[in-house]
Amino acid sequence: MNMTNGYSFPRARRQRGAALLTGLIFMVIMTLLGITAARMAGLEERMSGNLRDRALAMQAAEMALRDAERDILNSGRIVGLANFVAACTNGLCYNGTAGYATPVWTTVSMTAAPSVAYGAQTAATAISGVSAQPRYLIEGMQKYCWRNCESSLSPGYRITVRAQGANPNTVVWLQEVFKP
């Protein structure tokens, strides 16, 4: 043993690098955990953004349904089935006595005419935050059964709405049957 200032030091043993190897393995594991956590955070952020955009599109679609109802009730252009034609003009389509063989919203444009933009007939304020204002069609349905099918067969209206979120690829379709 060597003595320096009264202290004795053990002889230097040959080291094999076990601490270095253990430290490197630990660093690789920590790096992989960090990368995985960052990817998961990014994925969760995209998912929450998509959910928010879907909710925005759904709210826009609901607002367009209410706008179409106001159009039916207050615009004065809809009285019974007057102004409804099979060719769908100005957002009004006639469903006929037997109804369409193919659903009308699948055969006409819901991004341009003949569908009607939100607020076009009711002067409602534009919806902010969406990539395009929602659009709707109103189908007049002859002999629509409302509550008591034996005693009252009167016209009803099927409203079909297409709305987009902030991302134009986020699209919501809603449909309702409305009887004033």
Architecture overview:
This protein is an alpha+beta fold and 180 residues long. It contains one helix and seven strands, in the order ββαβββββ. The strands form two sheets. Strands 3, 4, 5, 6 and 7 form a five-stranded mixed beta sheet that branches. A two-stranded antiparallel ribbon has the order 1-2. The longest helix is centred in the N-terminal third of the chain and has 57 residues. It is rod-shaped and about 115 Å long. It starts with a strand and ends with a strand. The mean pLDDT is 86.
Which terms summarize this structure?
five-stranded mixed β-sheet; 23% strand; two-stranded antiparallel ribbon; alpha+beta; 180 residues; 1 helix; rod-shaped
What layout of secondary structure does this protein have?
Blueprint: E1 2-4, E2 7-9, H1 18-74, E3 92-94, E4 116-117, E5 135-145, E6 153-164, E7 171-178
